[in-house]
């Protein structure tokens, strides 16, 4: 039997129900970029869809949130649930690259993302978006999504728009860069498949 045939499917299922949001999520890390996403915020759906495709993940996500109050709970809680799904799917994290980065060009915009699945929580977002809404998405909530993801996954997440004109492109380039950085961090290192990528013995 080949090593490829014995590799465990890395998947995570999250059910998160609060008085503010009800979330059902299924993630497959080693997927084919397939998605079925519904959050009630169409621009946010679009970002999660392209995140899934560029990461090569499979994602089924349904969120019913109190959008009559604000988008904040939906965006933050989806970030938390998605991060938790990655944490569950990665298990003990043995044999993964752990860290990844990517620089993404999108027309006139350039964005960079760096991820470390370190077991420690930190996030930095510099999107350079100066408008309140991009499509139907409250742009200030981008930071809340990445904050939630970092907490859920217990990861360091840094995303930055280097320059650009279109606010749509600034956010989209960030999500694409983030997807590909995370794809690299989750990828398997065959040479160290039985080892934890840390000298501390714990992630």
UniProtKB/TrEMBL annotation:
Q: Which domain of life is it from?
A: Bacteria
What name goes with this protein? Imidazoleglycerol-phosphate dehydratase
**GO biological processes:** L-histidine biosynthetic process
Provide the species name.
Tunturiibacter lichenicola
NCBIfam families annotated for this entry? PRK00951.2-1 (NF002111), PRK00951.2-4 (NF002114)
The pathway that the record names for this protein is: Amino-acid biosynthesis; L-histidine biosynthesis; L-histidine from 5-phospho-alpha-D-ribose 1-diphosphate: step 6/9
Which keywords are on file for this protein? Amino-acid biosynthesis, Cytoplasm, Histidine biosynthesis, Lyase
Query: Mind telling me which CDD domains this protein's record contains?
Result: IGPD
Give the gene that encodes this protein: hisB
């Amino acid at each position: 039997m080949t090593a490829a045939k014995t590799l465990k499917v890395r998947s995570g299922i999250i059910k998160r129900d609060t008085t503010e949001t009800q979330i059902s999520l299924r993630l497959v890390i080693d997927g084919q970029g397939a998605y079925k996403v519904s959050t009630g915020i169409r621009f946010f759906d679009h970002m999660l869809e392209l995140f899934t495709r560029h990461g090569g993940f499979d994602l089924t996500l349904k969120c019913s949130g109190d959008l009559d109050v604000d988008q904040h709970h939906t965006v933050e809680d989806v970030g938390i649930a998605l991060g938790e799904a990655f944490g569950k799917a990665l298990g003990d994290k043995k044999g993964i690259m752990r860290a990844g980065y990517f620089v993404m060009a999108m027309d006139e915009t350039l964005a960079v993302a760096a991820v470390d699945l370190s077991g420690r929580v930190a996030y930095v977002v510099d999107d350079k978006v100066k408008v309140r809404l991009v499509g139907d998405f409250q742009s200030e909530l981008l930071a809340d999504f990445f904050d939630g993801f970092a907490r859920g996954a217990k990861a360091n997440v840094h995303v930055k728009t280097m320059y650009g004109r279109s606010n749509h492109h600034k956010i989209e380039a960030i999500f694409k860069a983030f997807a590909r950085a995370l794809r690299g961090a989750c990828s398997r290192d065959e040479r160290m498949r039985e080892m934890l990528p840390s000298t501390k013995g714990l992630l």
